[in-house]
Write a structure and sequence with these properties.
Layout: H1 2-19, H2 28-38, H3 47-51, E1 66-73, E2 80-81, E3 91-102, E4 105-114, E5 126-131, E6 145-150, E7 156-160
Antiparallel strand pairs: 1-3, 1-7, 2-3, 3-4, 5-6
Length: 200
């Protein structure tokens, strides 16, 4: 009887250990994202996908994809309704332009401000950087990826493409996601950030 009890305790301990696996990720960004996607209260994943979720796939972290961009504020921009994957049309303005070099090649991206978010606590200085690149539809999500950043104090912004993430629509079609404007297409492969999601 004692032996049986010991076996049951051991099995229970092993089961708990398997359930509480450490969160995967090579960086704080990756670990936080994986933890959020495992959390039923925050995750965009469908229940069946979250049940088997062990972590997102990321490109290898590469410092070549951390760039200092020249920030130019574009004044007198008119707000516009950004297209999404549904009929929802959130209001944005083009807040500025970011000019930078990626592996020796110059690029420019538009950066946007969501007019519906600026009145929410914590989002007053939030800026939205969506982009497309030549990994889309291959190693990364076909609809492009996003980077979050903040209004800079000076005239530079550090863009870390290792922190590029997928729209929620990449995981679940019930979400309404901004469609990346075509002018934010980078004619290069951005092998950094979150890769495409393999659905179950």
């Amino acid at each position: 009887m004692k032996y049986l009890l010991a076996v049951l305790v051991l099995m229970s301990t092993l089961s708990c250990a398997q359930e509480k696996q450490p969160i995967k990720g090579d960086t704080e960004f990756q670990r936080t994202l994986n933890a959020d996607y495992k959390d039923a209260t925050k995750s965009p994943l469908k229940d069946k996908d979250r049940k088997h979720f062990t972590g997102l796939d990321f490109f290898k972290v590469d410092s070549a994809y951390v760039v200092k961009a020249k920030f130019r504020r574009t004044l007198n921009e008119k707000s516009f309704k950004m297209k999404t994957t549904t009929k929802r049309r959130p209001e944005y303005i083009k807040y500025g332009e970011l000019s930078f070099q990626l592996k020796g090649t110059p690029f420019t991206l538009n950066i946007y401000q969501n007019q519906g978010l600026i009145n929410k606590a914590g989002f007053e200085d939030y800026l939205f950087l969506p982009f497309l690149d030549e990994t889309n539809g291959l190693e990364s999500y076909g609809g492009g990826r996003y980077i979050d950043t903040r209004i800079p104090e000076g005239d530079t912004i550090v863009i870390d493409f290792n922190e590029a993430y997928n729209p929620y629509c990449a995981y679940n079609s019930k979400y309404s996601c901004p469609i990346v404007p075509r002018e934010n297409y980078l004619k290069t492969r951005v092998e950094a950030g979150v890769m495409k999601f393999e659905k179950h």
